[in-house]
Amino acid sequence: MRASLIQVAVDEGESVQDRRARVAALVRERRDSDLVVLPELWTTGAFAYDLFDTESEPLRGTTYDVMADAARDAGVWLHAGSIPERGSDGSLYNTSLLFSPSGGLAASYRKIHRFGFDKGEAVLMGAGQALVTAALPETVLGLATCYDLRFPELFRGLVDAGAETLVLSAGWPERRRSHWTLLAQARAVENQSFVLACGTAGTHAGVPQAGHSIVVDPWGEVLGEAGADEEVLTVDLDPAKVAQTREVFPALKDRQLGLTVPGGAV
Ligand SMILES: O=C(O)CCC(=O)C(=O)O
Questions:
Q1: What CATH number did the domain enclosing 193 receive?
Q2: Is the CB–ligand 1 distance for residue 22 below 6 Å?
Q3: Can you say whether the dihedral through the CA atoms of 42, 46, 52, 56 is positive or negative?
């Protein structure tokens, strides 16, 4: 299975409209791939809080239409990163879209862990409530977004639901790049799964982005890593490696569930 991660540069010099058209053209160039992955909030930038409202879209809005066409034209599975979705309840959500090669919506995922503590996304957007997996012909994807990477229980939940390839769209800042690489490898090793983590390049809202999108195999080996700038990272991976790894080193079977502290917490 060939996966291409398009590490989009999100800089303020480019309009949302221009970037959308440019990224659609990049997707159309990936006809050689089975799966194409885009980053988090690449239309606005993950830290461009002022744009979340003005550039918000319904799930089936402009980005949906443009990306559905691009997926169909390229004939690829397209994880189109996330959009600032205006839900039917009026709230904003950080929502990822997955398209099939025919351009149909295969899945959508509202980011569960919102970043910013008491500001930014954490107060501007609503939280997703549901884990999302999607069966492709070659593998089962588990979807996650950026800050979710810090919460191992989310990924374990995806694995329990059948995920074999964990796809993370992100807009991760350069200043915490060491966490990004470490956590991507940790999530792959502990879940004996592929991790495809696609971030952004460039600088927006004064936040330099880490780039360094990464693909890690179920043994923790890095199959490919991008540099700091805009780049398409293409990696060939063998989906059978998940079952092989889980068979020869069956650590997931040794989980001890329901552990408690005798007498309660101290
Ligand atoms: O956890 C981090 O360090 C970065 C998270 C983040 O930037 C995000 O979720 O948008």
A1: 3.60.110.10
A2: no
A3: positive
